[in-house]
């Protein structure tokens, strides 16, 4: 039987967890939904439509938006209204399935954007040709299908009204929880982040190689051959500028994903290791608090891309954003 001090501690931890869930969720929901909507609008502009990396960023932003809407709406409203996903079987399964499909899609598309930048920076022309809008669109479709297949077990596994679980709508058996946790841990977090790091370093190496390969003699040879067409040069410079700024946006985003997404993977690893451990009520309360906190950190990762792109995306992204606002202002003034 728990002592009065332990009961008070458990009550305190549960209250703190509930407050963080309720109020931090509101903040993440607001900055995440606004940011992703603006991201979708900017990346849909004409200057980005033919860019394969920007297309992958656009797909990732849509997946992030869906993840935030499905994951945070019920948490945000939990203190003021009844969460039907905790009690209704259909809503429980539907929400869990959509959320767990959207999460890996958002992260895998960032990984694919990293692979696209590596291909584009490669000295091998065959690799550079693989970086195309058509391949990016195919990758988005394949990623969505694989994510649906990977988390299809959730439709069978998840049930509402659970008591001894981190969430009331959760995997009903240990096997179901292990399947979901291992899929999330390795396929959604650890492996994508690892490959992001690998391809990011390889891309930086390719960029350094290409810069070192350009020598004064090469420039003089180009000069002797005569000046290139002005319009073609300007267009190529614009493309190179967009490519460089997209690479910077990608590298910063990968760094922040390590900070905000990796803790959830670590928590899932800990949860898997301690599955068969007999825990006290105080330990269960602490584990649930840790799970809810790192889960919210993961939602921050879903909401931050727009702010990364605005700060480190250079003039290209900010100019498109300003142009979009100016166009919207003109249309409003005409009404």
Automatic annotation (TrEMBL):
PROSITE patterns given in the database record: G_PROTEIN_RECEP_F1_2 (PS50262)
Signal peptide start and end residues: none
Pfam families registered for this protein in UniProt: 7tm_1
Residues annotated as transmembrane: 20-43, 55-77, 97-119, 140-158, 184-204, 246-270, 290-312
Record's GO cellular component terms: membrane
Ranges of residues in domain G-protein coupled receptors family 1 profile: 35-309
Compartments, record wording: Membrane
GO MF terms held by the record: G protein-coupled receptor activity
The keyword Transmembrane belongs to this UniProt entry's keyword annotation: yes
InterPro entries in the record: GPCR-Ligand_Int, GPCR_Rhodpsn, GPCR_Rhodpsn_7TM
Alphabetically ordered keywords of this record: Membrane, Transmembrane, Transmembrane helix
Main location: membrane
Protein name as catalogued: G-protein coupled receptors family 1 profile domain-containing protein
UniProt source species: Adineta steineri
């Amino acid at each position: 039987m728990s002592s009065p001090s332990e009961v008070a501690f458990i009550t305190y931890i549960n209250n703190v967890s509930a407050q963080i869930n309720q109020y931090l969720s509101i903040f993440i929901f607001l900055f995440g939904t606004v940011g992703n909507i603006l991201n979708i609008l900017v990346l849909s502009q004409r200057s980005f439509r033919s860019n394969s990396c920007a297309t992958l960023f656009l797909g990732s932003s849509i997946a992030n938006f869906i993840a935030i809407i499905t994951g945070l709406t019920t948490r945000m409203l939990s203190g003021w209204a009844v969460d039907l996903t905790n009690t209704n079987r259909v809503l429980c399964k539907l929400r869990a399935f959509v959320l767990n499909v959207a999460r890996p899609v958002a992260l895998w598309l960032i990984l694919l954007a990293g692979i696209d930048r590596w291909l584009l920076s490669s000295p091998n022309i065959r690799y550079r040709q693989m970086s195309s809008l058509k391949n990016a669109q195919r990758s988005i479709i394949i990623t969505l299908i694989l994510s649906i297949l990977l988390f299809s077990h959730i439709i069978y596994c998840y049930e509402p009204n659970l008591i001894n679980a981190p969430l009331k709508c959760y995997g009903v058996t240990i096997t179901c929880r292990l399947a979901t946790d291992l899929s999330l841990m390795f396929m959604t977090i650890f492996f994508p982040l690892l490959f992001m790091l690998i391809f990011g370093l390889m891309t930086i190496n390719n960029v350094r190689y290409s810069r070192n390969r350009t020598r004064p003699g090469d420039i003089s040879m180009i000069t002797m051959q005569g000046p290139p067409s002005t319009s073609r040069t300007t267009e190529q410079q614009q493309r190179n500028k967009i490519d460089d700024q997209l690479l910077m946006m990608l590298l910063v985003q990968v760094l922040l994903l390590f900070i905000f997404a990796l803790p959830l993977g670590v928590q899932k690893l800990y949860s898997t290791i301690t599955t068969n451990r007999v825990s006290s009520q105080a330990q269960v309360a602490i584990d649930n608090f840790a799970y809810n906190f790192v889960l919210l950190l993961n939602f921050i990762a879903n909401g931050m891309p727009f702010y990364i792109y605005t700060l480190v995306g250079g003039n290209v992204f900010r100019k498109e954003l300003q142009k979009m606002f100016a166009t919207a202002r003109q249309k409003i003034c005409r009404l």
